[in-house]
């Protein structure tokens, strides 16, 4: 690149970008000038809106590891570098759902652990092309990795695997690529959470409020912008992990 050429826009891949935190993060990064690649599975939810803002939508079923590899290859067709990889996609299945069909167990383990492993491995060469050695992988885990819930055993185990990957890859990919994690708590209740469930959760949360997504964005920016942090996991949970 000629010395007087303007710097290229930073590039991000976000899995599960069609809704909730993935969607909000994608919009925030687009507003900051990123080229965003927005992964989704079958539901396009907010993907069309992100595409109108300049994002590129990429479809893949992360429960199918061959599709994970194909997603990495798709990205390589679009860009020669990557600055931020966010492993955000999730499937929240309880024991009954997992026990009902083996496909559900496969999905929980692959989406949360095997798919992030493959994406980090396959996209590491692109991350190494980031300018100023500031590339980062960000894994979205859960406060339950430290105190697993007995009614979501497979989910908690898979997220704990992702937490372990965070530390292992932080050591393996240093010094050129940093790897960090965020452990969300009661950030944004699901529509199916009734008022009694919400009351109970907030009663167990020291700060007593639903966090919203802005605290998550603030945590992303801190981890991204601090060049001396790797292998770290930050709880954004209003203190709820203290009581579970």
Automatic annotation (TrEMBL):
Gene3D superfamilies: NAD(P)-binding Rossmann-like Domain. SUPFAM superfamilies: NAD(P)-binding Rossmann-fold domains. Keywords: Oxidoreductase. InterPro entries: NAD(P)-bd_dom_sf, Sc_DH/Rdtase_CS, SDR_fam. One of its GO terms (molecular function) is oxidoreductase activity. It comes from the Bacteria. PROSITE patterns: ADH_SHORT (PS00061). It holds the Pfam family adh_short_C2. Belongs to the short-chain dehydrogenases/reductases (SDR) family. This is Dihydromonapterin reductase/dihydrofolate reductase. The lineage of its organism: Bacteria, Pseudomonadati, Pseudomonadota, Gammaproteobacteria, Alteromonadales.
